[in-house]
C-alpha cells in the first residue's frame, strides 16, 4: 500500500503506461497502413489476374489485352542469376568473417564495407553498374541487371551467415578440433552444417530484398516489350514494367501494373513466410 502511494512509484508507473500506450498506438497505425495497402492491392490486383497475364507479352501503347509473361520470365532469369552469383560469394565471405573476423584487419574492412553496402541506396548501385558495365558494353542487358541485384544481395547473405555462424557454441567446435579435423573442415562440415537453416533463411531474405528493386534495373536491364531470353540484351522485368505502366495514361496498362504489383508483393511475402517458418532456426545447443 505504501508503495502504491509513493509519488516516485506512481510517476514511474504513469510513465510506463504512457510509453506502452504510445507503442501500441504506433504499432496500430503501422498495421492499419499495411492492411490498407494490402487490401487496396488485393482488390485492384486480383481483378487483373487472368490467363492472358501469364501467357501474353506486354501490349503496345493504346492496345487492349496483353499480359506480363515476358516481364515475369525476365524477372525470374535476372533474379535467379543474381541469386546464383550472390549466394556462394556471400556464404564464403560470411564464413571468412566468422572464422577470421577477430584476427586480421582485412576481415574488419570487409565487415565495414558490408555494412556500408547494406545501407547504400539501390539507385547508387545501379548507377555504378551502369558506369562499369553498361557504358563499357554500350548496351543494356539482363546480365548487368543481375550484377546490380547481386551487389545488393551479397551483403545480406554475408551478414546473415556471419551472425548465424557466431551462434555455434565453442564446445562443438572444440570437440571437432579435438578429433583432429582441420580448420576448413570444421568451418564447412561442422559449423556451417549446424546453422544451414539460418543461412538458407538469409539467402531467401536476400532474394525477397532484390525481387522488387526497380532503380538498379532502370540503369542496367532497362526493358523489352517483346519476349526475350537473351540475357545479353535489354530484358523485360516486373519492377520496371510496373513503374512504366503505373505512370501511363492507358487504363489497360494501369490494370496490368496492379496485377504485376500483386505478383511481386505476394512473391516477396511468400519468401518471407517461408524463411521465417520452414527454415527458421534457433541457436544450436
UniProtKB/TrEMBL annotation:
Keywords: Cell membrane, Membrane, Phosphate transport, Transmembrane, Transmembrane helix, Transport
Parts of the chain that traverse the membrane: 20-43, 71-97, 109-134, 140-158, 194-212, 256-274
Tagged with keyword Transport: yes
Main location: membrane
Signal sequence bounds: none
Cited Pfam families: BPD_transp_1
One annotated GO molecular function: phosphate transmembrane transporter activity
GO cellular component, one term: plasma membrane
Membrane topology annotation: Multi-pass membrane protein
Gene Ontology biological process terms from the UniProt entry: phosphate ion transmembrane transport
SUPFAM superfamilies assigned: MetI-like
InterPro entries reported for this sequence: MetI-like (IPR000515), MetI-like_sf (IPR035906), Phosphate_PstA (IPR005672), Phosphate_transprt_permease (IPR051408)
Domain ABC transmembrane type-1 stretches: 72-275
Cellular location(s): Cell inner membrane; Cell membrane
Family (UniProt): Belongs to the binding-protein-dependent transport system permease family. CysTW subfamily.
NCBIfam families: 3a0107s02c
Protein name per Swiss-Prot or TrEMBL: Phosphate transport system permease protein PstA
Species per Swiss-Prot/TrEMBL record: Rugamonas aquatica
Upper taxonomic lineage: Bacteria, Pseudomonadati, Pseudomonadota, Betaproteobacteria, Burkholderiales
The gene coding this protein: pstA
